[in-house]
Amino acid sequence: MSWDKENSVSKNYPQGHPGQSYRVQFMEKQEKVVDLNLLLISNWKRFEKSIVQQMAARLDPLPLVEGDETQWHFVIDGLLTMIMKHPPKGFFFLHIKCDPYTVSTSNVRLKKGFRNFQIDFNTNITVNESWIQLYNNKLKEIELTVDALKGSFAYNRDVENGCLFSITLPGKQD
After folding, report:
1. CATH among 3.30.565.10, 3.40.190.10, 3.40.190.150, 3.30.1360.20 for 31-171
2. Origin, by domain of life (predicted)?
3. Are strands 115-123 and 162-171 parallel, antiparallel or unpaired?
């Protein structure tokens, strides 16, 4: 809520008089547009070169999204940390891809210029029971954060082939 003194209605009172009325404006919170590419790159740079150099990485362009940059940073940082802290022995890959995503429900309303995207973090890390126990709370926190950002989060694990983390969200590409 904000007070708009300059555009207020004042009848028979001089400017600043205690009897002057003020109009209250309810401002809709403006969501900030966040560039996930910049967040990804800034998080990527903080990992040890020795880990990054022994992996094959392919990073597709990501969409612009609305929301709190701190929350998006938490999501990207959390996923990268879980993946990078426990690399497999030998060959290590990470493919972050982004594709338009079709939602089958007709009641989903997106802002003009936005559409749904699915971002996949596909990796060959081994997600076993000890890994799940270690990161169970982090996975739940990421899921709740993505949900608050009007998206959804899921992961599939295949002990032999790796893990796929997926985020579905409304966004737009430049």
Report:
1. 3.30.565.10
2. Bacteria
3. antiparallel
Of 138, 144, 160, whose CA–CA distance to 80 is shortest? Answer: 138
**For the chain, what are the domain ranges?**
1-30, 31-171
This prediction's pTM: 0.73
* Dist CA 42 CA 25 (whole Å): 38
Task: Tell me the β-bridge partners of 115.
Answer: 171
pLDDT for 84-140, tens place per residue? 888 877 788 999 998 876 555 444 566 666 678 889 999 998 888 888 899 999 999
Instruction: Identify whether the C-beta of residue 37 lies closer than 8 Å to the C-beta of residue 75.
Output: no
pLDDT in tens, 37-67: 999 999 888 888 877 788 898 999 998 888 8
Q: How far apart are CA 167 and CA 62, in angstroms?
A: 11
Q: Is the dihedral of CA 158, 134, 36, 46 positive or negative?
A: negative
Q: HSE of 72 in the Cβ direction (CA atoms, 13 Å)?
A: 25
Q: What number of residues does the chain have?
A: 174
